[in-house]
Design a protein that fits this description.
This protein has four helices and no strands. It is an all-alpha fold.
Length: about 150
């Protein structure tokens, strides 16, 4: 049985997230963690808002659906779900007293960027002209400057 590259990336992303969570479990909560806590909840909110907004368009595989979604959270970034994940885990890294968390965070960013670019290529091939207009208005993961 041959394992696809997409599946390998998904497994790697999941492993990085799992190690990240394990390393941050030892953290102690104090007053200086209120701001990272706010960003954790903001990232989780963006994550769920994106899932809700996508409805049936969401898939674990890089398979474009019938319609290009450009509204809601997608009007600020092409991959708001990934943005929510990155915000959550970046803020969560402040709860850890282990410096390896930042190495794992770097791996998470790298894997996320690779996956987002791969999805962009699939969407570009399916939606052609409308994709070009949309991609000029939005950033890959983070909002473009106005």
């Amino acid at each position: 049985m041959k394992i696809s590259r997409e599946t390998k990336i998904q497994v790697a992303t999941g492993a990085v997230m799992l190690f990240f969570i394990i390393l941050t479990l030892k953290a102690e909560l104090n007053l200086f963690y209120i701001i990272p806590g706010f960003f954790i909840f903001s990232g989780i909110f963006l994550w769920f808002y994106t899932f809700f907004y996508m409805k049936s368009s969401w898939s674990l595989e890089n398979v474009p659906k019938d319609k290009l979604i450009t509204k809601g959270p997608f009007r600020i970034a092409r991959h708001p779900l990934y943005l929510g994940v990155l915000i959550t885990f970046t803020a969560g890294s402040f709860f850890s007293d282990n410096y390896y968390v930042f190495v794992l965070l770097g791996l998470l960013y790298a894997i996320t960027i690779i996956r987002a670019r791969k999805e962009d290529n699939h969407l570009k091939s399916k939606f052609k002209d409308s994709w070009g207009v949309y991609a000029k208005k939005t950033g890959l993961l983070f909002p473009k400057r106005f």
